[in-house]
Amino acid sequence: MDKVSFELEVITPLFLGGADGKTPELRPPSIRGAMRFWFRAMMGGLIGNDLDQLSKLETLIFGGTKGEIAQASSVIVKCYSSNLECSGYRPLPHSSTKKFPFQGFNPNQHLNVEILLRTYPQDKRPPAYIDRLTIAKEAFELSCMLGGIGKRSRRGFGSLHPKDLYQQDSKSLRKFIETRLNQIKDNFSQYAKSQNVALSGWSSLPTFPVIHPSYTEISVSQETYQDWNELIKYIMQGIHDLQSARTLNPDVFGTAKPNRRQSSPLIITVHKLASGEYVSVLTRLKSRLKYSVDNNDWNQLDKYVSGFNTLPVRI
């Protein structure tokens, strides 16, 4: 069976709820969900607002129950670990009043993720069969470079590191992400073309989060921290201060308000350097939100990002 394997380090607490929603459990569906999100972001940035074609390409790899090509997933995700330890961590470490904990897997532990291609008889393999494994692998890489897994992953929790992500400093990390993003973009483009899907891009604000040079900003912080918790605390305090200043719609950072729930368009990932120090990667995915956000709000969000003394990643 064709497969790829990742040996990963847990960089920041990993909040993955099990059957009861509270007890931490390493679950492939959580990883698959992150892979789907980053697949849509990368592929959606290339093919534009053709949701039927995007759904088709996603279903060919990850499976689906709707449309003309409803099928089982072409890839299988498996997780392995040896007795991961967990503890209680505050999801709002900057707050002096909200001190409730979430149970999460501890940092500095290791786990393995395997992505396998579903077995087909040699004479019944669909077109671009092997390419599906490459695309699934790269969707997982995107989730590690730019995102995370589980609850609070847009605020720095749930960061995972494959071996090749340990760079010497912020500049080398920026170069690594830039190079790998362009390679992944090329592979996604070729896969879309192999399925006769046109690359039309976007001429106006996207209707969902995508990786596109006109609507996405990715940057690597040059500020280093000895402790991941101090970095996340700094991140959260900055967001809290900006929301409290009332100079923008605070919902631009996302909201869990009833009937207005919206994920944050800013995704912050914690990376660990070879020295053991920590830096942040900030990804802003500008798209149409459910509530009213104007240019001032987006500018204030970008100003917050620039306060990290960042290095921009060319997309």
Walk me through this protein's architecture.
The protein is α+β, with helices and mostly antiparallel strands and 315 residues long. The protein has one domain: Alpha-Beta Plaits (2-Layer Sandwich), CATH 3.30.70. The chain is 33% helix and 18% strand. It contains 6 helices and 10 strands; from the N terminus they run βααββββαβαβαββαβ. It has helices at residues 28-47, 51-62, 129-146, 170-194, 228-244, 295-306; strands spanning 3-10, 75-80, 86-89, 102-105, 110-117, 160-162, 216-221, 266-272, 278-285, 310-313. Strands 2-5-1-6 form a 4-stranded antiparallel beta sheet, covered by helices on one side. Strands 8-9-7-10 form a 4-stranded antiparallel beta sheet, with helices on both faces. It has a two-stranded antiparallel ribbon with strand order 3-4.
Q: What is the structure about, briefly put?
A:
The chain is of the alpha+beta class and 315 residues long. It has 6 helices and 10 strands.
Strand content: 15-25%
Class computed from helices, strands and strand pairing: alpha+beta
What's the mean pLDDT score? Answer: 89
Rounded Rg: 19 Å
The first-level CATH class name: Alpha Beta
**What is the overall silhouette?**
globular
